[in-house]
Design goal:
The chain is an alpha+beta fold. It has a single domain (about 30-220), classed as Gcn5-related N-acetyltransferase (GNAT) (Aminopeptidase, 3-Layer(aba) Sandwich). Helices cover about 20% and strands about 30% of the residues. It has 5 helices and 10 strands, in the order αββααβββββαβαββ. The strands form 2 sheets. The protein has an 8-stranded mixed beta sheet with strand order 2-3-4-7-8-1-9-10. It has a two-stranded antiparallel sheet with strand order 5-6. It is globular. The model is unreliable at about 225-229 (pLDDT under 50).
């Protein structure tokens, strides 16, 4: 009589090669990631600060009334974005270093959805929204972003119809966080957004804190509390 055989142990699943899990996470993050984002505000009653850049910076202010010659100052990849900005009546400023494009930022007084972040900053008639801040990588250590944002502050401060402007920045973006806070912007709301393919975004529902603010469905100006809450 044959002796009974010991039960076979199930084979262990093969271990993933070193780094495979990290690569999988990296690929998933390229497709979609949840990003913590802060919305900041600046009180137009304050006196704008005047940061100094390490290089001479020329600012070109543009808007719907400007002729199209300034478009030649932009890299080709940026020109396609401009028509949507101008149709809303938004105003921009372009930073030039040695006569070449170094960065830009835009200011809007119209509620709209930012296609890149997916955020909708809802504005009252006395509010504005600074967006699309960009500085070419080689000029970021030179203080160009501070010059651009200070010029936005000067425009808002000089306009008696405006009481504040908003801007958003990802919580993990330490350089921009530091810059905006040095310029006097303060937290007003925090939100999570989904970033798809590193190009398109969408605000995560019910993620805004506090629940009332510029990213809320009714906007900050329609809350039951006072505007300063």
């Amino acid at each position: 009589m044959a002796e009974p055989q010991a039960p076979r142990r199930p084979r262990a699943a093969p271990e993933a090669p070193p780094g495979a899990l990290a690569r999988t996470r990296e690929l998933a993050a390229k497709f979609a990631e949840v990003v913590d984002t802060d919305v900041l505000e600046w009180d137009a009653a304050k006196t704008p600060r005047v940061p100094r850049a390490r290089v001479p910076v020329e600012l070109v202010r543009v808007g719907p009334e400007s002729d199209g010659a300034w478009l030649e100052l932009l890299p080709r990849g940026r020109r396609s974005e401009v028509p949507a900005f101008l149709r809303r009546g938004d105003r921009g400023r372009i930073a030039l270093v040695d006569g070449r494009f170094a960065g830009w930022v835009w200011l809007s007084r119209v509620t709209h959805r930012d296609p890149w972040s997916g955020l909708v900053v809802r504005l009252a008639p006395d509010e504005a929204y600074a967006y699309a801040l960009w500085v070419e990588p080689e000029h970021r250590p030179s203080g160009v972003a501070g010059v651009l944002m200070a010029d936005v502050q000067a425009e808002v401060h000089a306009d008696p119809a405006l009481t504040r402007f908003y801007g958003w920045v990802d919580t993990r973006n330490r350089e921009s966080q530091l810059l905006l806070r040095m310029l006097g912007l303060k937290d007003v709301q925090h939100v999570k957004r989904i970033h798809l393919l590193r190009r398109l975004g969408r605000q995560v529902p019910r993620s805004a804190h506090p629940p009332y603010g510029p990213l809320s469905a009714d906007g900050r100006h329609r809350t039951a509390g006072a505007p300063g809450q």
